[in-house]
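JOB MANIFEST
job_type = single_chain_structure
chain_count = 1
residues = 251
[input]
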Amino acid sequence: MMRARTMLHTLASSFLPLYATAPHPCSYLPGRRARSQVVALTGPVSTAMHAQLLNHGFRRSGQFIYRPWCHDCRACVPVRVAVAHFAPSRSQRRIWARNAHLDLCEVSRQPSDEQYALFLRYQRARHHDGGMDQDSPAQYAQFIRETNADSRLLEARDEDGTLRLVMLMDVADTGLSAVYTFFDPDRAQDSLGTWGILRQIALCRQRGLPYLYLGYWIANCPKMAYKNRFSALQYFHARRWHDTPPLCLTT
């Protein structure tokens, strides 16, 4: 159940109605209740409007563009990489070189049985405590296909053609938004998740886009710790982007 909450002023003379969801169990912090603020869209979102929403801390999931809207918690902090200032660490340079043999290609957003099999293996290995690991092939197909943004699907394969990684990302005027990435859980030593982010940073540079949006970082959530390992990370707090994380978070 959702109800009208407020209006968001984005582009000049453009206002979007927002709705707040009913409280639901938090996906990141056990024992917490969460709410989201959802943009009421009546059709596709332009890359310009999407950029405005990303810059206000929103994120897309399926047909919904939302941001956390919890009454007594500010733990979810939107983060992005400022591409021009990013410099890989020594470890990240090794990861880049280790995976140089992978061939990354954009593919049609038509989900395949091969992708779904990799998706299930990844979920069961990485998110066995719950989440999307019970999705059916139809639900996976909906997850890949349903979008109101300029969305792209990319696959990375070994020299022998074996699928190792899949990335779903959105294109906006100010950058790329990393929607979801999954990869071969048996190749943990290759740090494919980190490599996927490095490749998206490289894609931003190729396209002349200033930011890679990484969704939300939560200081007390171990699953989010990897985001803080990227240099030039910016944090959205108090309606502004900052180069350092907020000193005080209400959690």
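[summary]
Residues 83-207 form a domain with the Aminopeptidase fold (CATH 3.40.630.30).
The CA atoms of residues 24 and 34 lie 5 Å apart.
exit_status = 0
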